[in-house]
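queue> holo job accepted (1-deoxynojirimycin)
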Amino acid sequence: MLVPIVLTLCAITRIKGNASIERKFPSNFLLGAATSAYQIEGGWNADGKGESDWDYHLHKQPDIVQDFTNGDFAADSYHLYERDVEILKELGAKAYRFSISWTRILPDGTTNFINPHGIGYYGRLIDLLLANNILPLVTLYHWDLPIAFSNNGGWLNETTADRFGEYARIVFNAFGNKVKHWITVNEPSIHCSFMYEYGIHPPLNKSPGVGFYECGRNLLLAHAKAYHIYDMEFRKIQRGKVGLSLDAEWPIASSGSKDDLEAVKDYLAFNVGQYMDPIFKGDYPERLVNRIAAASRRQGFTKSRLQAFTDKQKAYINGTADFIGINHYFSLYVYRNASVRGMYEVPSFLDDTGLGTFQDPTWPQSAFTRMREYAPGLYSLLMYLKDTYHNPVVYVTENGFPTTPAEDLNDGKKANYLRAYLKAVLDAKANGSNCQGYFFWSLVDGLEWASGLQKYRFGLYQVDFNDPSRKRTARKSALVYKEIIRTGTIDFDYNPDPYGDRDKCFKNT
Ligand code: NOJ
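queue> job finished
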């Protein structure tokens, strides 16, 4: 008996410095996968669903998307949700993060009419998840905005936040007896930059250095509105948690120079602090405010392009997160020197940051240019959140590595990435991070927004988009993840060259 016990202990513990580090995810740690409505559901007008900005703009102007695909059918999860739950079961997933399509519930966006079919669809999905012991983590808004609101200024219009609150109330009321984890909005920074800074997502309204901040501000107000509605009307009975998901890369100083170290702090202020600080500290970070104000002055604006929150708004937003969701994909080196001036459009958000970025070409490359594997970045990010924001409850609500269509089912690089980043989570937990869950992006292949359906394969499961039945097939990464979830640990005895062929990491296949 002694030998197996000793071996098991060896497999789950490692020594780091003098400390014995727990190498196993606790049984209540949520290992799961994530998706979003427009990217996988299809059924764009099924059973009374109304039109979102994505539906409208991609029908009107298909070349918004590189390969002219759209979300009309996508992975057809609207009809295949039972298979998706089966997949989650196959994986042994403990939780599933998905989003609700606003216009499936409220076809014109307002509470004038609540679509019973929309309520029915999500109700069936949630029930099936729960029947299989899979916890639903539900995003209220993952970028698909009712077209009427988009046409009325979208997230540049503060009243969209009011409409969002009304929608949130309907959803809490319908599903809050079963759903206990709510994510109000997904990735304000990427969402606002793609819409307004770069103008590559609907409504294709490019206003660099202006719309991006206004949009982020209104999304924070929308988030806070939903939080307060939950707090005042539902929390006592439903006893759930409300947070939001932020995209966060990890910036590494490219040298020890004062300028480069400052650049790291500024990167974090723009990328993370812009949203975290109002919620966790009561206002925008000072360095964000100062940099934008100074640049605005230089450019002849009469006031800062970043509108300050009123005291009332500050108080309203402060403290409105029971947890924080982090979508983390990659790291980058940052620097600041004379060459940065003139590198970007003026005004623009990037110009405001006043820093340059690059990546280490030896980091394993995904199909997506900027998405390279550097797992210590996730460790550092989790430690930064712990140290900067009083160790909040964190869920890694997205982390993923798209492979190419050619790699197909043999996505060993994705599997390696998954192992490496989960190890980083274990390391962070061992050092005090309050990370309580991890959601791989994505459960199945879907529409990668303006990049289309074909180019980037994020799924643990392949979806055959040429097959009308949208057949799902497990990739190697799915098998690796399944074993990690089953054992609660990673095979640390397999310690290959970190950048070599690590496909053998899954010993049992
Ligand atoms: C973050 C977004 O939330 C998701 O919709 C997207 O597909 C992934 N990043 C990958 O780019």
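queue> Residues 36, 39, 186-187, 327, 398, 441, 448 surround 1-deoxynojirimycin (CB under 6 Å).
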